[in-house]
Protein: Major facilitator superfamily domain-containing protein
Organism: Lentinula guzmanii
Amino acid sequence: MVSSHPAWLLARSERPQTQTNLNKPNEKDAEIVINADASPSQNGHSDEKRVEVTYPEGGLQAWTTVFAIWLIQFSTFGYTNAYGVFNDYYVRIYMEGKYSSSTVSWIGSMQLWLVMSSGIISGRLYDLGYFYHLLIGGSIIFVFSLFMLSLAHPGEFYQIFLAQGVGAGLGIGLIYVPGIAVVSQYFYRRRTLAMAVVASGSGVGAALQSIMLNKLFQRLGFHTTVRISAAFNAGLLCIGILRSRTRLSPTPPKDSNLLRHMKVFFREPQYVAVVLGTFFNLMGLFFPTFFLQLNANQKRIMSESLAFYLLPVMNASTVIGRVIIPMMVPVLGIFNIVTPSVFICVILIFCELAVTSAGGYFVVAVLYGVFWGAYVGMFAPMVGSLAKTDSEIGARMGICFTFNS
């Protein structure tokens, strides 16, 4: 039976041996101890040796790291979720009518593919202890690519594709998995809450950056707007990198062969079901992120100035889904939240195609944001709940993201 526990390790690890009352106001030490299984061996079975892992369950450094990763999510995946603004601007203005919306969408598709597929590399390197290398290297690539994007000429598809699709996608991909995984070093019982807070960063970032980009495109034009956004995100990334901290020494599995680990993971029916399910889900669930604003403008059922707020409203609504809905995980379980959220998102996508009024578009934007946010917020904990030890989290997430890309 699939585990419904909210924390990543609850599906496989033993319960804590020491129970601490987290509600005591004057009790600073909320640390709990977990006896986690060792890494799987080549034959797929866990070794007999058990490793004692402690989780502080909060504290200044823990929540500072959560905030730091929140800023990184704001800048990186928030920028990815704001791509609908670029897609609308490219199709209607910057590509000068040379390319169709389906062709232009390849820019965002390539970016998203690299964000996800890079996880198989970044997840593995994170497990080996290269956390800061990935954050710094990915940030440099991301910011450099945005400055290169600002030099792209109107109507030159290949320049925009290379800078935004390939460069920015690769940079974000190197950052995404390590940023999420490091939070698991501080939390066991409160891991779902911490992950929900981190995930809300991309929703807030997408909402605010969508507004910023739309307004600045009108006032300053493409080149200056992209340079401002590059400098803005560079500053946030610097703060995030400086304030984030790893807590545990890297404990890579004894068997470092990634292909062998893939064979072990894919012998687990639960893991295979999650990978296949998310593969089919992500094939269509990013549709509103790319096309909601463009479709509203092309149907001419509202003014451009009003259509500009569709993406910010949708992305702001994801914060509700990312933070509020995960609070029901201890009662309902991760999979019992993810499944209906996906079905509702599918229904709303078909509703968006039939909407003919401005009010209808905003209703779809709000509802889709809530349930899309719930799915995205539960995605990483859902995959991580199948890990036997923390040393597997990066690899499992990276492999899953790569297959889903």
User: Anything to note?
Assistant: The longest strand covers residues 32-37. The chain has 18 helices and two strands. The chain has a mean pLDDT of 81.
